[in-house]
Amino acid sequence: MRSRLISGSEISASIYDELKGRIAALRSKGVTPGLGVVLVGEDPASQVYVRMKGKKCEELGMHSVTVVLPADTSEKELLKKVDELNKDDKIHGFLVQLPLPKHIDEDKIINAIDPRKDVDGFHPSNVGSMLIGKPLFLPATPAGVQQMLVRSNIETAGKHVVIVGRSNIVGKPIAAMLVQKGKGADATVTVVHSRTKDLADHTRRADILIVAMGRPRFITKDMIKDGAAVIDVGTNRIDDPASEKGSRLVGDVDFENVKEKTSAITPVPGGVGPMTICMLMSNTVMAAELSLL
């Protein structure tokens, strides 16, 4: 079987082309979409991600503000910064980069963000709206996965989707989105996780397998059925002496061995990764459009 490669880089490029038209329309009305990012501490992965967001805003002609705070910033100080961004008319959407230092209550910070500016889609009111099928902002990575399925013409209606992983950031939101009525949804969804018995028995029944559990190459060839579509959300850095950096990125799926058995599969890197920032930009543009209503 010849497997089709689903490129997040290509799909995100086409979405950016669409966004450029919407951004131009907003700017013609005197509105430049503005994204704010708050980074507390010096987590290397978060620093890279924040830089990429700022660079993409610049490329698209959007306004971007990055607030960098020391790791010992108090919860009270961070809440004050969130309040400032809530009130800043030039910032249409913002997020506080997770994870936060352990002395800060992440839930308290997320709850303090104005839901109309919550472009990460993590505020409880936005999570609830998503669950009942009336979302304001969808969380970026799950929204990116759904767009990959839709734009790759992978039918979800009536299909059995198995999601490996139950995080609040990826697994649960994707499950909630795919059981809704409508395009890119109408699926029968099973969620499996670390406590699931006979996990491979479930994954072998999937028409579409979405993997987000943070374990390198966990899904092997014998765990999927012939012709399944596989979306690999995992990003894991493993040692690789042959690489210039001494390490490389791999997904949660054993890509090289699994791909021959699939009808379509995402690579790592270049698969879901580019879609996350893309959907964040899309949410920010939508927030700017909503500000005019």
Secondary-structure map:
Blueprint: E1 4-5, H1 8-28, E2 34-40, H2 44-60, E3 63-69, H3 75-87, E4 93-96, H4 106-112, H5 124-131, H6 140-151, E5 160-164, H7 171-178, E6 188-192, H8 199-203, E7 208-211, E8 229-232, E9 236-239, E10 247-250, H9 255-258, E11 264-265, H10 273-290
Parallel strand pairs: 1-11, 2-3, 2-4, 5-6, 5-7, 7-8, 8-11
Antiparallel strand pairs: 9-10
Helix pairs in contact: 1-10, 6-7, 6-10
Q: What descriptive keywords fit this protein?
A:
11 strands; six-stranded parallel sheet; globular; Rossmann fold; alpha/beta; three-stranded parallel sheet; 16% strand; 293 residues
Structure commentary:
With 293 residues, the protein is α/β, with parallel strands linked by helices. It folds into 2 domains: 30-114, 3-Layer(aba) Sandwich (Rossmann fold); 140-272, NAD(P)-binding Rossmann-like Domain (Rossmann fold, 3-Layer(aba) Sandwich), CATH 3.40.50.720. 39% of the residues lie in helices and 16% in strands. It has helices spanning 8-28, 44-60, 75-87, 106-112, 124-131, 140-151, 171-178, 199-203, 255-258, 273-290, and strands at residues 4-5, 34-40, 63-69, 93-96, 160-164, 188-192, 208-211, 229-232, 236-239, 247-250, 264-265. The protein is globular, with a radius of gyration of 19 Å. The N and C termini lie far apart (50 Å).
